[in-house]
Amino acid sequence: MNDVRGANRPDMSAFWMPFTANRRFKADPRLLVAAKGMYYRTDDGREVMDGCAGLWCVNAGHGRPEIAEAVGRQLEAMDYAPSFQLGHPLAFDFAAELAKIAPAGLDRIFFAGSGSEAVDTALKIALAYHKARGEGGRTRLIGRERGYHGVGFGGISVGGLVNNRRAFTLLPGVDHMRHTLDLDRNAFSRGLPEHGAELADDLERIVALHGADTIAACIVEPVAGSAGVLPPPKGYLERLRATCDKHGILLIFDEVITGFGRTGEAFATQVFGVTPDLMSTAKGLTNAAFPMGAVFAGRHVHDAIVQGPEHLIELFHGYTYSGHPAACAAGLAALDIYKREGLFTRAAEVSGVWEDALHGLKGARHVIDLRNFGLMAAVDLEPRPGAAGMRGYEAMLKGLELGLLMRFTGDTLAFSPPLIISEAEIGFLFDTVRKVVESLD
Ligand code: PXG
User: Fold this and answer.
1) pLDDT by residue (tens digit) across 304-321?
2) 331 CA distance to ligand 1 centroid (A)?
3) In the listed set 340, 362, 389, which residue is the last one of a domain according to the structure?
4) Mutate-to-test residue for ligand 1 from 52, 146, 283, highest number of ligand atoms within 8 A of CB
């Protein structure tokens, strides 16, 4: 991969790329070959600021030697050990460390290999919980429009992004609440929007339609990420929690993006003061240096399932890579960095600067909304008539040319830099976004 330019480029046909316009990409590839701190280096030797922490995951910045050393040491000492009816110390150590930073009561940790697996694990735990308590009729799962919960069958079923669903069969018995994006009432909100807490009452309507005794769980991202950074309206999450409590429905927060410091505390749950029964995480869990996911389960959920005869398996679920030793080593090292460098609260410290810099774009060409929370931000561009999504794509290309990597979904640009970003770098990031949007037709 060191020299892949021009004539030396590898044959690209074999790698079927995920969530990518394969033919367009391969006709005009963009390759990254190195990364350190806030910056990637491209194959033609240019430095590009990472405006989105990879895919919302490299929270402590790139190339942390402590993580590389911990993973290398572990791979040499013991590359792999199963976690089925056997164990190795690091998985217990890592779970114990995670339990210490977990939101109140959510201190039973189930490991998976990715965010999608963590989500499907959380959904299955919710079903098993009700079954174990003699309420096996509670099988319905409730998601939300515009939700993203990975790409497993469970995740796409409760998810609410149409392109991720329409080619596939879905789980039966899933309903969706409406999403909370409301440009008419909330455009250009700073932080949490004022309007829309009542949208949480969609859960009451679904209960009225189906009966609470058929509903197992409700899953939402505390701040929706992939759909283009949708912070919850003020009071929304509290209302959802109250409705779940009233009807015995488990509340699952999908913190795959919001976890590990993205919103100003270790978890968004702590920022909002609303505690779910289950929480799915991944990404920042290992600073993305090793694939891993984790479900944080409430004691009450765990204890309801982990009971009965002691020689029997309590939950028929798990992955070859649940608690992979090298993933645990990466996670422990990442956790150490987060704590030592105060990164969990860093987003709260710089969020004022971040918010002001973002909202400086109000009035810039094509900009129809700006949204932010913690170190997350979105810039909505007006779609070009007859060519929705093109401005977003062109913005991403122009950003790369000007030295800034951003995510785009449709005509929404999304930003979620490593938490180590400096105030000067925040300035560069949004100055560049301004240049980008002003350059677009
Ligand atoms: N839940 C949430 C909330 C996510 O954001 C997943 C689950 C699935 O995680 P895995 O590890 O299986 O991919 C995610 C993943 C983007 C983008 O740019 C977002 C994700 C993945 C790739 C791109 O919006 N989120």
Assistant:
1) 999 999 999 999 999 999
2) 18
3) 340
4) 283
